[in-house]
């Protein structure tokens, strides 16, 4: 399935329910991946750094559950910990990765050719 410009604009980037196992629509599960992506999407929607506790509360998870995910995301340079404000922020790694992908040719109707 190809994504149109309209579909991409309407994609629910701030919908953190994707990590809610009660509303999953696929039979395949990857809980750790779901948690990691939920953290990235949450941080992407924030103007200010978030603490571990704030992240856990907003994702309805325990701090212990979030701790390992934050450690791995930080180790892989997707997020950074700002000591002066004791919070986590996104790095530019996802932006860099997205710019490494070649642009897809589009037709006049916005559909991918």
Quick structural gist:
The protein has helices spanning 5-10, 31-44, 52-58, 63-75, 93-100, and strands at residues 79-82, 87-90.
Layout: helices, strands, pairs:
Layout: H1 5-10, H2 31-44, H3 52-58, H4 63-75, E1 79-82, E2 87-90, H5 93-100
Antiparallel strand pairs: 1-2
Provide a descriptive summary of the structure in words.
The chain is mostly helical and 113 residues long. A two-stranded antiparallel sheet has the order 1-2. Strand 1 and strand 2 form a beta hairpin. The longest helix has 14 residues. The relative contact order is 0.15.
Question: Which terms would index this structure?
Answer:
single chain; 113 residues; mainly alpha; two-stranded antiparallel sheet; 2 strands; disordered N terminus
Low-confidence blocks of residues: 1-11
Q: What characteristic shape results from the CA principal axes?
A: globular
**Overall mean pLDDT score?**
80
- Percent in strands: 5-15%
Radius of gyration: 16 Å
Number of helices: 5
Assembly level? single chain
Order of helices and strands: HHHHEEH
**Total count of strands:** 2
The major sheet is characterized as: 2 strands, antiparallel
By secondary-structure content and strand pairing, the structural class works out as mainly alpha
Terminal CA distance: 12 Å
Measured as a percent range, the helix fraction is 40-55%
- Strand arrangement within the widest β-sheet reads 1-2
């Amino acid at each position: 399935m190809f994504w149109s410009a309209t579909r991409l604009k309407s994609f629910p980037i701030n919908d953190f329910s994707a990590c809610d196992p009660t509303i999953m629509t696929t039979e395949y599960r990857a809980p750790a991946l779901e948690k990691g992506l939920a953290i990235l999407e949450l941080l992407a929607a924030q103007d200010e750094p978030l603490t571990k506790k704030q992240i856990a509360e907003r994702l309805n998870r325990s701090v212990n559950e979030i701790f390992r995910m934050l450690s791995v995301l930080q180790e892989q340079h997707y997020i950074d910990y700002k000591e002066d404000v004791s919070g986590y922020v996104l790095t530019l790694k996802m932006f860099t990765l997205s710019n490494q992908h070649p642009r897809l040719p589009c037709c006049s109707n916005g559909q991918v050719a």
